[in-house]
Every structure is written in structure tokens, then in C-alpha cells.
Amino acid sequence: MNRALLKISLACLAMFVLLLLNMNYVQAFEAGKLAAEPGNIRVFDEQFSYQRGAIIAAGDGTNLKIAESRLIKGTDTYQRYYPQGEMYAPVTGYDTIYSKSGVEQSENSLLAGTSPQLAVHNFTALLTGKQKQGATVELTISPAAQEAAYKALSANTGGHAAGLVAIDPSTGAILALASYPSFNPNELTTFDGTTLNKVDHRLLTERSQPLLNRATQVTLPPGSTFKIVTSSAAFSTGKVANPSATIPAPTVLTLPNGHLLHNDDDEVCGDGNPQIIEAFYLSCDTAFGELGMKLTAPVLRDYASKFGMNQALSVPIPVVPSVLPEGPGWTDPSLTAYTAIGQYNDAVTPLQEAMLAAAIANHGKLMRPYLVQQVLGPGLSVISSHQPSVLSQAVSAPVANDIQQMMYQVTHNPGGTAYATAGPGVTGSIIIDGKTGTAQNGPNNTGLNDAVFTCFVPASGSGSSPIAVGVMVQGGGYGADAAAPLAVAVIKAYLAAHP
Amino acid sequence: MSFTADIDQPVPLPRGRRGAELLMLAFALAVVLFAFAAVGLGLRGKLPAGLPVDVLVFAVIMLAGHLAVRRFAPYADPLLLPLAALLNGLGLVMIYRLAESGRNGNPGLQVTDMSTSATTTQLMYTGVGALAMVAVLVLISQPRVLQRYTYTLGALGLVLLALPAMLPDSHSVVNGAKVWIIFGSFSVEPGEFARLALAVFFAGYLVTKRDALALAGRRVLGIDLPRARDLGPVLLAWAASLLILIFETDIGTSALFFGMFIAMLYIATQRTSWVLIGVSLFVAGSWLTALLFSHVMERFTVWLHPFQGANPTGIAFQPVQGLEGIAFGGIFGTGLGQGQPYHTPLVQSDFIFTAFGEELGLVGVMALLLVFGLLVQRGLRAALAAKDPFSKLLVGGLSFVLALQIFVIVGGVSGLIPLTGVTTPFLSEGGSSLVASWILVGLLIRVSDSARRPAPQPIQEEGMTQVVRAA
């Protein structure tokens, strides 16, 4: 019997070993996954019982707290607080008892301290009896640029909805990310579900849609700023040799389908056969419409993709992809003429506008845009730090140089569309190279035009370009009038803080 | 060296090691005391008001148990009582902690539905359990005494097992399981005791029939199959376990009952074929019932897809809460009184292990599992050392079923196997399980005592007739 008993003992041993292994699996390896299950009551109840990490705007070398957790007096509960309110709301997002958005959501595991990257810190805290604490997230946002951006957007004449993004072209660091109208995230930090639902309902039903992040979540037609992509394709494919090469620019272009493409206000474009640089700074639609047809839609789409379009992006807050979609009949030349001037079915975000300028500013090399510079553990040790990376080589350096020359003329040639609003007369010693866009809207283009402007400060000497800005004002009118001044204000403020 | 030098030395008697038992018991009591204090400090930052009385009463009960072992089973394995005391004590502490949820200013989702006197009641059952253990030691002076009652206990076991199925639902169903006998405020889960009675029956029956059952019949695929005519008892046990499964909607009890029978059959005959036949019968039976009865199939759905669709808030709510609780505890746990085990429905009963997982963490439950494992191991050791086949079978079977029960419930709540409702020995709230567990410990102590008891010493050396000191 003893031999059988020994085998029974082995069976018992096997059962206990299985149990031990399974407990290890659940509690050590699967714990994070189970904690992230939607509706985990324990995680929900615990989230306000310790200090969540702060979010800091560190782009100016000084630390500006834009989100922190404060202990409510007389309790052991922490409440989220956003010292800068609506100015930074498109960046921070909100952190309510039910849901999160923005950086609060994308960096949640670090802010909450549940990330495996923080396991060692949490363990040390446990041993030393210290309270659990979330990690601090340092953003690339420059408080100077962000403040200027939000103030400029909220002061835009007509109070139109608008979004603006500023990027450091050499790294991809996002310096400003502003949206108007905005909301005050402090209204959403209440622990009272009924109050929260009321505020939430109000924000969701408000006509101006304050929760919508115009910088990353709304795409509009790029208008003439898309001529940067069209020109890039033309130079890169050799269809146009250089900025001095001439291209046909009739006053009215008759499309293959019989439609007529006019220039804005039926203006004449040079002598009808101008250099492409002139067609660019005058922003002649007929010239680029015809050029687009010559290039064909797939080529335009290819170059749009090189500038970061047609792909999902997270910075790490999610970005709605800017697109030049393939659809039924999208290669029809008559439609391609409109695509080439940013009017048919191409749609972009202000972030994408900034990326257009940033790629040109950085000699054709488009850096991956990002918001989180580094993450600091409790005790301020660095947990992770961002390494800039290349998203794509949009164009070659010589082509980027050609485009830059053309963008220079937009603001520096007295005939350039943005000479009056972003030229030397308003910027003083600062040089801004840009491109305006005025996208027609609505059925038969009866809606208000969307104003678009994309620009950058070119590199001086051996340095690199310090800033590129993309801005879109929904229904704002002319890009030069409604959008360019906003970008100029941001650039001035940023350069003043970074001499 | 001279061989004669030692001859006149008295043979040293094996020591009873009761002192070691007392020391380990004191250690177990200290752990329980500190755990009790930790619950109070974790809940409200101060010691529980009932701490001195509750711990004192518990200590007195356990020390009385120790004295009884000292008197009636002086050679027993010294680990058995302290291990059981530690588990029982920690169970009490957790029941106190859970009964405080949402009460007296303590954190809790809402006021728990546990009785305010849950701790006192459990303490009372601890006393009854210890008394039952002492009764076993006093009444059963030799393991073989039990063998006389083989068929009586077999009949009793079957009646106990079948009783809930016979009673109307109002007198037998608690939380969907038809395994109770309820009269007024008195309720008992007879299956817990039936298992013990049937263990005695199986042991007695198999001791007499094992030679026949071990006979080989035809040889198929390298395995000696038993003779067809010997299959009767196995089929009978299988049928009985299926009936429990169907009429008492209780897979857990059914699995334990059948598992114990197969294990004892294997110990008795050493025939692997019995195990294969048993396991195949059980799998086939479960599969059949799963097809026929929705409640069995539902267990499989919950096990495989706890987080799918509406399951987490529907049929899988309790297991999901248990799993999330264990995961929430992580490696080191939240600390006693500082977790949120009250989110899991009926956590004090089948799911009490998840409360330990949440508040003591992986380190805590590994320690608990090792304590359980040690208890099983000491039982098996007693079986190995036992001198008569009846004791070997009885204690081997009981130890195995203890391990199986822990495997079924802990594996069930942690997602290793489909969940079936059985109690966690010593830890779960409820008297039947606790008293039955103490009776089991009493049987282990009795068998280990007779196994370790020194052989009778001859009083005089010469002659054919020897006078021996009766044990």
C-alpha cells in the first residue's frame, strides 16, 4: 500500500504546485491586466486615495504645474486640480471618477503609479512605509507659447473655433497645443456623480463643443497650404525643375469634366505663365490645379503620406489621421485639380499643418511629434526620457530648400499673400516663412471659409529652425487675415522666452 | 567494540514531542493574535474592542485541545494541532474583518449582510469543533474500533448525503445549492460529515475486498483491466456522485466524494486501471450533465470567458470580483483591513481565500497554501507509518480528499479550474465545515498516535509466554 500512498502524495504535491503557480500567475503577472479591466471596482475606489502624479509643462526650462493632486483637508482623499484651467485643457484632458482624456488618459498608468516601470519604486515605498505615489510627467509644452496660443485663439475676431499646434522642427517636440473654445477641467473633478453628470451633459450638448480638441481631433480642408505638398511632389519628381521654372496659370482653368476652376476673385496670375515661385506666393489655384493633374492623384497621395498624412498618430494623445483618401473615382483628373489645391477631399488637423512646415524647416526630415519629454518617479529620478525619432524623410534637403524659398516669398514679397500679416512689417527682426490657406466650405462653397496658416522660423547660421506653427480657424475667412496673426503671436512669444 | 555493552540498556522510548507541539501552538496563537490586532489597526487605526476576550477564548480552546492530545494521544504528530489551530485562527480573524465591513465606521461598500455576531458564532463552532476532536480521541482509542462500524457508517453517510435531495427546497437550499438541512435557525451541511462517514466505509469495505479488486482481468493497451464483475462498487459510487450532481446541483461535493473513492481504491489495489476508469467515468459524467443541465454548462462558460460581454456584471460577477480582488492584492497585499474584499458577494464563505489573497497578497496565500500542504503531508505521513491497512486507507483517503478540496476551491476562485462551491477547510464561515475539519484532524491525530506509539515492551525476557504492557 505504501507505494500507492507515495503516488497519492505526489498527486497531492502536484495539486499544491499547480495552485502556487497559478496564484503567482494571477497576482504577479496578470495583476496589471486585471486592474485594467473596465469596471474594476477596487481600482475605481482606490484611485483617489493616494497622490496621482503631476503633469508639468517644462518646455521653457521652468516647471509649470498644469495638473496636480491635492489632499482635501480633513480627509485622506486626493482631488485633481488644474491650476491653468482651460488654457491647457486640450493637453491635460480631464480625470473624472468615470473617465479620462488627454495626457491624463494616455499616461494614466504612470500618473497612477500602476505601470510596471514603477514596480521598483512601489516596492521601495512599501518597504520604507511610504505612501504609494504616481510618477510626474514632464511635457514639451512651452508655457510662453501655450499662453500666447490660447490667448490669440480666444481673441480671434468672430470667436471662431480654432486649433493651433507649434512644433520644434528639429526634435518633433510639441511646444504648444491649443484649442478654442476650451473647457475648465476643474469642473469635472468633483466626486459627486450627479454634479459630474450635469456638467458633463452641459459640456457635451453645448453648441460650441468645448470638449472637442481642435488641434488634434478636427480635420478641415488644408486649402492652399496643400500647395506645399503639391510643389514638393513637382520638384521631387522633376515635373518642375526649380522655383524659377515657369508653369501655365490661366485665369480660368477648364477641367476635363467641363467645370471651371477660377483663381480667387478671378485674379490674373502673373503673365499667365509665371515662375512657380510667383504662382506660389500669389497662391494661384489654376496653376497648381493644372500641376496637380499632371502629377496625378496617387503621386500627390504618396507625398501627403511622406508629410505624415494617411496614418494614425499618437503623441501620445490620440490624433485623428489627416487624410487624402482613396475613394471611388479619386484619380479623376478633374477632382485631382481640386485635391492639389487642398479643396476636394483632403482634410488635415492643425497638428498636420505644423508638420508640413516642420518638415520643410528641418531640411525635409519630418520628426515624430511628441508631448512627453520625460517621466520622473517619486523622488524625481528619471524613469524614461524621450529620444527624438524620424517619422519620415518628406523631401530631399534641396527640395526642402526650394520650398523654403517659396514660403519666404509668401511673407516677404510685397505681393505675397501673408506679406501684410506675417511679413517684416509685423515681425520686425524675426523671419517667418509661411503659406496661407483659405478653404472654401459648405454646399456650393457658400459657407464661411476656413482660415489656415502654416509657417516656421528658418534656421539661422549653423543652428536649426526653432519653431513651426500650424493654425486653423474654422470659418475665419482668409488665412492671411484670420490665421497668420495667431501664428505670429505664438512665434514672437516663444522666441522672446528662448532668445 | 563490544556488542554486549548495550544489551542491558533500556530501549529509548520514542518521545511524544508534546512540548514541541505546545511551543508551535503558542507560535500559532501569537500569529493569530497579531493578525487580529492588524485587522483593527488596518480598519480604524486602533485595536479591536473584542480582541482580548476573543483571543483568550480561542487560546483556551486550543490549549484544552492540546491537553486532550497530551492525555489521549501522547505520541501523535506534534504538527497537526498547531497547523489546524493556525488555520482556524486566521479564518476567525478574516471573518471578524469581513463582518466589520461597512460597520462601526469601517470602510465598506455597504453594510455587509453578515451577522454582527459572526465572529462569536464562529468562535463557538471552533469550540464545538475542538470538542468533536477530543470526542474522537476519547471514543476511538484505536483506529480499528472504527472498522467495526464500516457498514453502519456507510449507511449513515449515504443517508446524510441524500437527505438534502429528499427535503423540500425551503428546508435544503441556500444560495442555489441544495446541500443543507434547515430547521428554523438551525442549519447543517450534512455532506461535510457524510464524507467522513463514507471514508470509514470505503476503508472498511476496501480492506476486505481489495484482494478481489486487485485481480487482473483482461490486459488492454498495457493496462490490466479489472474483472467486469468487480466493477459494481465503482459504478455504484459513480452513480451516487452523479445523482448528487444532478439533484443537489453541487459539482464540488460530487467531485470530492468520487475523487476520494477513486484515491482509496487505488491505495487499496495499486491498480492504475482503477484511476483511469474513475477519471474517465467522471469526465464522461460531467460532460453528459453539462449537456443536460444548464447550471453545469454555465460554470464552464464563467470559467472560460469571465470577462466576456455582460458576464462580469452577470453570471460571472462573483468570480470576477474574486479574481480582481486577488489581483488587487498583488505580491504583498493591501494589508489586513485595508483591502476591499467586501465587493465580492459571500466572500466569507466559498470565496474567503480571495479575501486572504487581496489583503495578504501572494506572499500570504503562498504561506497559507504551504500550511495546508503541510497538514496534508503530515496526514499522508501518518498513513505511511500506520501499521494496519484500515488506518492507511482511511487516513490516506482523508488526506487526499483534504488536498483535493483545497485544490477545487482555491483553484476555482483563482481561475485555474471551473468554480465549484465547496468550503475552504478551517477558513470559511460556517459550523459544519469547521466541525468536520476538526473531526478529520482528530482522526489524523489518532492514527498518527497509534503509528508512532512504541511497540509493547516485554516485561520479562524468558519463556514462551511473555507478559506485555498493554497500550
Topology:
The complex is a heterodimer of chains A (499) and B (471).
Chain A lengths: L1 H28 L1 H5 L5 H6 L8 E3 L6 E8 L6 E4 L7 H4 L9 H5 L1 H5 L6 H10 L7 E4 L3 H12 L7 E6 L6 E7 L12 H13 L21 H11 L14 E3 L5 E3 L13 H7 L2 H11 L1 H10 L6 E2 L3 E2 L13 H8 L9 H12 L3 E3 L4 E5 L5 E4 L4 E4 L3 H16 L6 H4 L1 H4 L5 E7 L10 E8 L9 E7 L5 H19 L2
Parallel strand pairs in A: 1-4
Antiparallel strand pairs in A: 1-2, 2-3, 4-12, 5-6, 5-17, 7-8, 9-10, 11-14, 12-13, 15-16, 16-17
Chain B lengths: L17 H27 L6 H22 L7 H20 L18 H22 L3 H5 L2 H17 L14 E3 L2 E3 L1 H25 L1 E5 L2 E4 L5 H16 L3 H19 L2 H21 L1 H11 L12 H13 L22 H34 L3 H25 L17 H22 L19
Antiparallel strand pairs in B: 1-2, 3-4
Helix pairs in contact in B: 1-2, 1-3, 2-4, 3-4, 3-13, 3-15, 4-15, 6-7, 7-9, 7-14, 7-15, 8-9, 8-10, 9-10, 9-14, 10-11, 12-13, 13-14, 13-15, 14-15
Key features of this structure:
A: about 500 residues; alpha+beta; 6-stranded mixed sheet; 5-stranded antiparallel sheet; B: mainly alpha; two-stranded antiparallel sheet; 4 strands; disordered N terminus
Helix content of chain B: 55-70%
Radius of gyration of chain B: 24 Å
Strand runs of chain A, count: 17
User: How many helix segments of chain B?
Assistant: 15
Could you tell me how far the N terminus lies from the C terminus of chain A, measured between alpha carbons in angstroms?
A: 90 Å
Query: What is the general shape of chain A?
Result: elongated
pLDDT < 50 runs, ≥5 residues of chain A: none
Coarse shape of chain B = globular
Strand content of chain A: 15-25%
Measured distance between first and last alpha carbons of chain B:
35 Å
What's a concise summary of this model?
The complex is a heterodimer of chains A (499) and B (471). By secondary structure, chain A is an alpha+beta fold.
